[in-house]
Amino acid sequence: MILLVAHTQMELVREALHWVAVSYLLGSIPFGYLIVKLREGRDIRGSGSGNIGATNVARSAGPVLGALTLVLDTAKGWLAVWLAGWMTEGAILWMSVAALTSIVGHMFPVWLKFRGGKGVATGLGAFVAINAPVVGVAFLAWLAGVVATRYVSMGSILSAAALPPAIYFFYRPQPAPLALNLAAAAAAVLIIWKHRENMGRIAAGKENRLRFR
């Protein structure tokens, strides 16, 4: 009996390590860096905010490259979770693990000495693969923040903050699985923490505002 329990626990650990590795490596593909490097031959980290995400790419290299970065960063989060669901017959535990670790991969990519993006687009794709309507609530929070303040970063902070309660209250079937709640809470904390410099610039009135035409 003891040996059977130990074997089961080892299998669980191996599966966890497998999905952590797969989703981290997918999330760590630095599309913003690669796109600008291939198109313009320069390091996007030396421009603007120094971030590899879609917002900085759009501001520093143009809206087309920014949009492409957004699509690819979103897609890698979605793919990480979709693969986990497909290979485990929809096990929400491993889909939640994949969602969180793909975001971590984007934030701390091994290929760029762990200097990555802020995880918003990758998080969008990851949680859309789990429950799209819940992500719709977070998107509305993002939209409200951007329209009200004209700060993209403020929209991102509000959307991250909205994600855990959206999952807790609106995920179906209720109640939302514990693993999913924990993954959403951890992702929100990480994304908000990654925006700490933006919050400092907003407080100082130095953050770039979005211009509506």
Report on this structure:
By secondary structure, this protein is mainly α. The protein has one domain. The chain has 10 helices and no strands. The model has no long low-confidence stretch (mean pLDDT 90).
Strand and helix layout:
Elements: H1 2-27, H2 31-40, H3 54-61, H4 63-87, H5 92-107, H6 120-128, H7 132-149, H8 152-170, H9 178-194, H10 196-204
Helix pairs in contact: 1-4, 1-5, 2-4, 3-4, 4-5, 4-6, 5-6, 5-9, 7-8, 8-9
- How many strand units? 0
Instruction: Tell me what portion of residues adopts beta-strand conformation.
Output: under 5%
Number of helices: 10
The major β-sheet equals:
none
What is the end-to-end distance? 69 Å
Number of domains: 1
Average pLDDT reading:
90
The succession of helices and strands, N to C, reads: HHHHHHHHHH
- Helical content class: over 70%
Query: Any low-confidence stretches, pLDDT <50, length ≥5?
Result: none
Radius of gyration: 18 Å
Question: What structural class is derived from the secondary structure elements?
Answer: mainly alpha
What characteristic shape results from the CA principal axes? Answer: globular
Features:
213 residues; mainly alpha; 10 helices; 74% helix
Summarize the entry for a quick read.
By secondary structure, this protein is an all-alpha fold.
